[in-house]
TrEMBL record:
<keyword id="KW-0046">Antibiotic resistance</keyword>
<protein>
    <recommendedName>
        <fullName>Transport permease protein</fullName>
    </recommendedName>
</protein>
<dbReference type="GO" id="GO:0046677">
    <property type="term" value="P:response to antibiotic"/>
</dbReference>
<dbReference type="InterPro" id="IPR000412">
    <property type="entry name" value="ABC_2_transport"/>
</dbReference>
<dbReference type="GO" id="GO:0043190">
    <property type="term" value="C:ATP-binding cassette (ABC) transporter complex"/>
</dbReference>
<dbReference type="InterPro" id="IPR052902">
    <property type="entry name" value="ABC-2_transporter"/>
</dbReference>
<comment type="similarity">
    <text>Belongs to the ABC-2 integral membrane protein family.</text>
</comment>
<feature type="transmembrane region" description="Helical">
    <location>
        <begin position="183"/>
        <end position="202"/>
    </location>
</feature>
<keyword id="KW-0472">Membrane</keyword>
<keyword id="KW-1003">Cell membrane</keyword>
<keyword id="KW-1133">Transmembrane helix</keyword>
<feature type="transmembrane region" description="Helical">
    <location>
        <begin position="153"/>
        <end position="176"/>
    </location>
</feature>
<keyword id="KW-0813">Transport</keyword>
<dbReference type="Pfam" id="PF01061">
    <property type="entry name" value="ABC2_membrane"/>
</dbReference>
<dbReference type="GO" id="GO:0140359">
    <property type="term" value="F:ABC-type transporter activity"/>
</dbReference>
<feature type="domain" description="ABC transmembrane type-2">
    <location>
        <begin position="38"/>
        <end position="262"/>
    </location>
</feature>
<dbReference type="InterPro" id="IPR047817">
    <property type="entry name" value="ABC2_TM_bact-type"/>
</dbReference>
Amino acid sequence: MTTLTQPQTGTARTHASLAGQSLIHAGRLVRRWTREPEIMVQSLIFPTALLLMYQLVLSKFLSASSGKASIEGFVPLVAVTATMFGAMATGTSLHAEAENGLLDRWRAMPGYRAAIPAGRLLAECVRTFGATVLLLLVGVVLGLRWHTGVLSVLGALLVPILLVIGFATMVMALAMSRAGAKIVELSSILILLGMFFNSGFVPVDQYPGFLQPVVRFQPMSVAIDAMRGLISGGSVAVPVLYTALWSVGLTLVFGGRIIRSFRR
């Protein structure tokens, strides 16, 4: 008995082609990033060294002041920092591609223009996942212990990916502007400030009163709180919700700008 296969509709073929081309672009970027020292340093080496420094130098003091194991805050803090610094490095790389004409050559080829930014977002998720896995393993060596189930490990790995979707969208939009490289570099200052004004470094109630709302609800803090909740068994739903809101908000604000940039 012959089984007839239902032919794909035009919309289904379009979605399949777009997904396939996005995967091709993502694979190209991941392979190229492994050969770019700047991205490897900012995504893997610098975060690992930062985690070691925090734990070896500040661990006793911060554990005594907060009453909790500092490693439970350091690992999420460094994972989120690695997410942002890695996205900044790839944003600089995207600006270089726009300046040297590589993006124009990609756009001149047959295919979906949306596959270029979509593939870059997929590659960012892969990079973030790899960096988070590495940092969690280093954290375990330094004394990090899980107080929840196996599913919480997967959840902790997914939180930085949730954040990077919105943050990478913003970085790509900035990188596609005329002064993209300078704007991306200036944005790094905000990340440096965020490294010292977040809930992973010290508890929020130890900051001055006027700073506490800013520290509590800034994107790094909510992602750190979500990861720490998954690790130590604290609050998870509310921090994950705020992380998702930050990511969706950044995507909506800057996603349209990316589309306009690729159409020009």
